[in-house]
Write the structure tokens for this entry.
Amino acid sequence: MTEISVRNLWMEYGDQIVLERIDFDVAPHSFVSLVGPSGCGKSTFLRLLLSQEQATRGQILIDGEELPPNPEPDRGVVFQKYSVFPHLTALENVMLGLELDRGGFTGRLYGRAKRRAREEAMEYLGGVGLAAAASKYPSALSGGMQQRLAIAQALIKKPRILLLDEPFGALDPGIRSEVHDLMLRLWWENQMTVFMVTHDLREAFYLGTRVIAFDRVRKREEELERYGATIAFDTPSDPAPFVTELAAKDAAA
Amino acid sequence: MALSRSGRLINKHPGSAAGRLLAVLPFALLLLAYAVGSDIRLSENPNDKLLPSFSSLADAVERMAFEPDKRTGDYLLWVDTVASLSRLGGGVLLATLLGAGIGITVGLIPYARWTMSAFIAVFAMIPPLAVLPILFITFGLGETSKVALIVFGIAPFMMRDLALRVSELPSEQIVKAQTLGASTWHIAWRIVLPQMMPRIIDALRLSLGSAWLFLIAAEAIAAQSGLGYRIFLLRRYLAMDVILPYVFWITLLAVVFDFILRRYQVWAYPWFVSERAQS
Amino acid sequence: MKLFSKTLVALATSMSLMVAGASSVNAEEKKEFKLAWSIYVGWMPWGWAADQGIVDKWADKYDIEIEVVQFNDYIESINQYTAGAFDGVTATNMDTLAIPSVGGVDTTALIVGDFSNGNDALILKGADSLDAVLGQNVNLVELSVSHYLLARALETLGKAEKDVAVVNTSDADMIAAYQTDDVTAVVTWNPLVAEILEIPGANKVFDSSDIPGEIMDLTVVNTETLADNPAFGKALAGAWYETMSIMLSDTPEGAAARAAMGEASGTDLAGYDMQLASTQMFATASDAVTFTTSESVTSTMESVRTFLFERGLLGDGASSPDIVGIAFPDGSVLGDEGNVKFRFNADYMSMAADGSL
């Protein structure tokens, strides 16, 4: 179970303050939606969570420990685009996490180890409904399939935290609701904490168990540089009906 | 041939048969112009060397390719071809390895980028032919300096091109790879290098023309065999009957290499071709 | 399709006319002539004579125009002449035979300006006898007079070219090449010889003064053009010997002329005088006539044509060196009398000697 604490976080680029006084705790197995207008620093916050950048001041603690300085497999990520590798087939994309882990210097597996990794990866591919597309390259997959592939690729590392940066923003509405339910099921089954940046409030409230909005408090032109965005509101959200069903099913079992 | 009333030139396309005919046309015209020009000159001076007749070109090919040379007993065209291609191959291979190795390092590692990219950019501007004496004294007058000239000629371009291609990879990929447990080395080896392979082929195709140029320049300066050596040697005697078939042969080799590289790229990196088609 | 085939014919015709146009140095009387020359000690007078208006003065006298064009590339100037773009060119006796004459362009040696008397040399690194060259790589411009000099040097040892390994090396890079470790023997010409001999350990073991008169620097013209336009030959001979009388005189004007020629060839008065010292310039037309009409020219051309024949440079169909005829001032012919393409002609030099120009 993973608990996250954000302690008085500030992010500045030179003189420009982007985020200030970000301070909150997240309970284990939360689904946190981050919303806010463009430029409010929600993607910056995600990069800090990833260790892609370092905060100017303040701390992020995971189970009481400070974040490592580099992106690590404990935090998986799915971006809006470019999350999967174009030179690998769907199966190879999912296997990559296992190969890098077990393949040593070459980052490749051979023989029996490779077969085992392939079987494991096929399970994850099946879990996102892509078993039939295992040998296809991403360029032959639709946008929705690519995002499902990216999720499977991240999940095979069993991350404690999954970070989603507008992951469904480029999808058609029909496809999007399908992927929403898939996402909720995976979140429920894997018992991880999800942070999702989105600009779609409906999506934020539908998926999230908690919705945090970043915004600038001071909006006058001359104040923009010296004051960053901070938490504008922070509210719990009811789990989606689909999650309630999942919970009921679990309880029955 | 008159344009139809409604057709604007920019919107008119030839059919497939006509298209093929149009493609052949400039070649046919060139050949015809050569034949006529050669005929006129030869009727004025039967020994004219500038535009030899097709039959004397054929004789020269026969002599260079299929008869042993009177003095050395070698089949000169093949000896020259082997000599040139091994120099070209060595130079291009070395330049590619350097270009890929340094290009990827510079494109991927910020410290390498700060150290090397300005240097490479400046180095790439040095005309290699102008510093030939330094190459000679460093690498001697033998095969090494010829290969070195090709490497100096094309490696800086390949380094810069590949560094640029690496930096064009979305940063999301690099972050994602790290979240999958990749080290810096893993990223270079499993993420960047495989994606650079088809781009290396692109860079190679663009560089091959210059590589030939540098090869021929190197062979013109000091050599005992080679396609460029023969051309420059025979130029002393205006032996166009041999030079023209050699030029044709070099052109043919270059076209064939380009074709093979293009085909190989499509065959070995299907993902790249469809990526490119989408973007 | 009719339009198409018409266009094709028109295009082909215009292209072939363009090509043929270049060769239209046809035999007919004309007023404008072009002479090509390249930078070499024995040919520098042409550049200077053109600058000083001496060429124009003589051309005016015969009511013609002569354009004097400098080439940076010697071989290209001969090729251009052979292809028909020029009426005359400066060349050695060997290159004249091998390029225009073998190429079917009947060519006359109008002026024998000088012969190399030490300007071409075989230099060894760290050895001072000629026989040390055996078994070595020898860097030189293949098929040039350097190559000929090497062949003659080996003959004096009773050896042949197979006893060394020739490496074709561009003259522009000869000095740099000499400084690399794998180069131990070179044959080249001045001013490169002088440069290389300044490097410690360089020894001259054979030079053109060992074969005097065999490497001649000529001004050659198209025979047909000359036959139809004697004025062209007269103007050139007149201009040449007037220039000789100035530049070779021991006067301030002579020194100034030589200094200008030295500068134009990238050196100075001292450097140019040094090159002249190893060049046997014919100061007067009568000296040149004496040389040209001597027996030695015939024996030189015999040895030159044998050298060329052995290397396949008299044409690949050539069954003997006789294929191209070479005519001498006394009317004798070496080789095929029906195919004379190279003529030594002393008439115009004699006119200059007589003062009848």
Observations:
- The longest strand of chain C covers residues 107-116.
- Residues 1-5, 16-26 of chain C have pLDDT under 50 and may be disordered.
